[in-house]
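Appendix B. Chain record.
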Amino acid sequence: MFKRYKIIAIILCSFSATSCKKGWIDINYNPLQLTETNATPDLMLPNMLINSMSAVNNDMIAEWMGYWAYGQYPSGQSYLTYYMMDNSQFGSSSPDVTLFLFEKNAQQHGQPYYSGIAKVLKALQWSRAVDNNNNMPYQDAGNIEIRKPRYDNGQFIYEDLMKQLDSAIILIHDAQQDKALHISVADIMFHGNKDKWFRFINTLKLRLLMHQACRSDRETYIKAELAKIVAQGSGFLASGEDADMNPGFTVDKPSKYYARYSAYDVYNRYSLNIGNIWINNWEIASANVTALNMLKENNDPRLGFFYGPARVPLPAGAPEPFTQPGDQQYRGNKYGLPIDEAIYPYQRTEYVSQVGGVRTYRTAVSPVSTGIVKGYDMDCWIMTSIESLFLQAEAIQRGWMTGDPETAYKNAVKESFRWLNVGGNSNTPSLSDAAFDNWYTSEVSNAKVNWAAATDKYKLLMFQKYMAFNGIEPFESWVDYRRNGAFPDIPLSYDPGRVGNTMPVRAPYPVQELIQNKENLLAQGTIDIFTSKIWWMP
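Structure tokens predicted for this chain:
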């Protein structure tokens, strides 16, 4: 079904340091064959975690959401026009097929700690898949006896994933630490710290609940699930506490985010072919004027942390295809806008800002590292403390959790300052706090910054969440955009071949599914990527 995986390919994906391209869920492999190897779950877990990291497979979404924009796309590319025939451009539209193997392997080796982690990763990846596709095979997925799996309703999958997370807490809680195979080493995220796993699980639960929060008919369910989280007692990911991992990145084997998006890696490890032209992948992480100008308009100190100054200054009097306000060190592109380089030669990559962070080669992370790209050995994140605090702020603002809404909002934005290390020394987070406080006070009348000035507190919260996720969590920004009725107002692609007057709200199903599972696919009705809603959209 969808994209076939050979058994050997799955094994290589599980144990190799390089990643394999994911396809749709393949129901035609037998996980029992894989457990006949000498593999144990501790050998599989590190790569399972790395393959679950956020941000690196959503370049198109980062551009759609107004964060990034490569300026030299040939007109007519599918991601510019929204003419999407399949899900190949949607990096998180399919769970990792090795999840089935990992969970089965943990069970067969009597490793409840690993079984619990498998359920967490299942909830993480399947929820992302639903956020892309809505209905999809779930209960029948991975069953080799079922050649044409039924589709399950997106809401049903979400609710079952919440149950999977409940089970994960029990399994991890009851697991004997000393019987969990090499857990302190294999668990490259929390090193076997149960309390951190519980906080991550609770935060992931909160994410799934807030996704559906704009549907009024879900309030009773959400409140009941929140009560369970509170009763569990571990809380959520706290300030400075990301769900991230670092198996020991080096200059030659750097962090994946650094390798994909930094212009200062020692090698160009990733490239892509666009209209028969090969470009370095890091060039995709060029500033989009949408978010760039929002930062400028609000005098946001994070401007120079989300983006770096253009590597080559714009010559005085140089022709520009559109006006760029404010500090000319920070320039961007309009997504999809065709540029005639003969007339406007200064929209090439070297003349626009890139993702913010280190600007020298062979730079390791240190307390003075700032921005997003902090060094070749930077951590890979699955979920950040920024998201955790914004999720909590939303639940508090809605009256579903206790706390002061204004304080929760300010703490969430302040966490963005800390994460970017705006203060310049991560060992002294109060420096970043002071940078936030000064800005917040100076913008006392700005309804896009100051709580007291905003008439719509929820929109303020969502706007600043959008700003905080720049280059860090674009997929969640797309989720919020869809559930909040296309807020904030993000310009659509400027490509003249654009086929829609709205941004797509979902991924299309893979074309091969129409051949291999036609009856069950057609039972989902006519799918339109512009109008067929994900179940949690109001």
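Further analysis of this model is presented in Appendix C.
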